[in-house]
Design brief:
The structure is a homodimer. With about 230 residues, chain A is of the alpha+beta class. The first copy, chain A, is elongated. A five-stranded antiparallel sheet of chain A has the order 1-2-9-4-7. A four-stranded antiparallel sheet of chain A has the order 3-8-5-6. The longest helix of chain A is centred in the middle third of the chain and has 27 residues. The termini of chain A are far apart. Chain A contains eight helices and twelve strands. At the A-B interface, helix 4 of A face helix 4 of B. Chain A binds a DNA duplex (30 and 30 nucleotides) through helix 7.
DNA sequence: TAAAAATGTTGTTTTATAACAATGTTTTTA
DNA sequence: TAAAAACATTGTTATAAAACAACATTTTTA
């Protein structure tokens, strides 16, 4: 179930998103008509193969972007943070989602008609450049993920995932936004093996670990593990 | 060693590429100054991390696009066919190549200053749409490759690679443009195992195989193998 | 708040595939 | 065209990680 909160408006929103700023600059505020939708934990925000009708801005909360693989096993592509957009691939030729997004925590989203965003993209070169760059970065990340998931082994993959999450939260101390199994989806290994590797890292004094709380004690060591094997 | 053929000009070129057509439409023919460079088999056409200075159109021949992974093992992203472009990622925010391209056969390329192509992109919406779409498709392919290489096993991966090549050559009968080891790079398995799987497929009457010549006798069976495992 | 479901943990077994080795064949190079 | 290098093939061994199992703990749901 989703909650539609019609009270929230852009001017009251503390997240100054590029879409709003660009729309304002282009005098398209009237047409914006943003809809604020709240998703509960575990709820699907968008589904693979579904049509992209809106650009979705994650205003509050965390979500996971994943593709559903074989035998019900997912591969998590990324963890979404407040400020991230969903659905902008529509601008790059695909009318359908190529991935799923589901809420890891309650997620507040702001949704705008994708047609309007497309128009903005085509008529505002700064906005265009921003989206192009973001898309290019996504592509580069995909590329390195392809190598990592294929050629690295468990310890390296988990180390990489931990560093990725630390970088998202801009801190070496964080609360894991995912379960062990999901950390496995992000690292392309089983949940059981995630537990094992995490225990090893703890044993070796590389991380401190208690339930979901992680402190990376030796970031350089973890970095080395993530690079080599 | 590369051969620069200054004699070839766009008007004489039988490959009517989008860049030339768009430049003509925009009266930018004078500025185009295309350079025709020929690469020998095995030569590097572009290298990871190098600056992108030109848009490279593969006019004739085949090339492989790959990222260099760990322990000297590559992952092949795609096989390039005549008409394919290299370096357009520069438009999407990255000034450096994120991949390598090397010649599988002698490769004739036509190279145009990337700055000009960028200008064309920003001032021609049709051209823009084409490049965006191409980039989007590349992204989608990456995504499905991520799943395939991670979750499928040898037989499925090799089946997929064979179908991919058949689709490139638009025929179920083709001469492999790659070695067994390279087919391994494309499938993320070892060369030895490629040989084994190909032998199995031959034994099972799914393909006909002699040296580099492949005939897919039972495309549907191969398709099923590629999907399941 | 009791019951059910999901998550976390550790140990054991199985399995797919890499790694290694040995040899024949083709292609490239000097 | 002879020698060297790269490629293809088959068999064997080693290994990383999945699969399975059993149970403790936490979270969700009725």
């Amino acid at each position: 179930m989703r909650l539609i909160d019609k009270e929230k408006h852009c001017l009251a929103c503390n997240s100054t998103c590029d879409i709003f700023l660009t729309a304002k600059e282009m005098n398209l505020e009237q047409e914006l008509n943003p809809v604020h939708i709240v998703y509960k934990k575990h709820e699907i925000i968008c589904r693979e193969h579904a049509s992209i009708t809106h650009s979705i801005n994650l205003v509050e909360g965390n979500a996971k972007m994943f593709v559903s693989g074989l035998h019900g096993k997912n591969i998590m592509l990324s963890i979404l943070m407040p400020g991230n957009y969903i659905g902008l691939t529509a601008i790059f030729g695909s009318a359908k989602y190529a991935y799923n997004v589901s809420a890891l925590t309650p997620c507040h989203t702001c949704q705008v008609n994708i047609g309007l965003v497309k128009r903005m993209y085509h008529n505002n070169s700064l906005f265009q450049e921003k989206l192009n760059k973001a898309f290019g970065i996504t592509m580069a990340n995909m590329m390195s993920k392809l190598v990592s998931l294929n050629q690295k082994q468990m310890r390296a993959k988990v180390a990489e995932s931990l560093l990725y999450i630390a970088q998202l939260f801009e801190s070496n101390r964080f609360v894991l936004p995912v379960t062990r199994k999901e950390l496995g989806e992000l690292s392309a290994i089983t949940g059981e093996n995630v537990v094992r590797v995490l225990s090893e890292f703890k044993q070796e004094g590389i991380i401190q670990l208690e339930a979901k709380e992680v402190i990376i004690l030796q970031p350089e060591v973890l970095k080395n593990i993530s690079l080599a094997g």
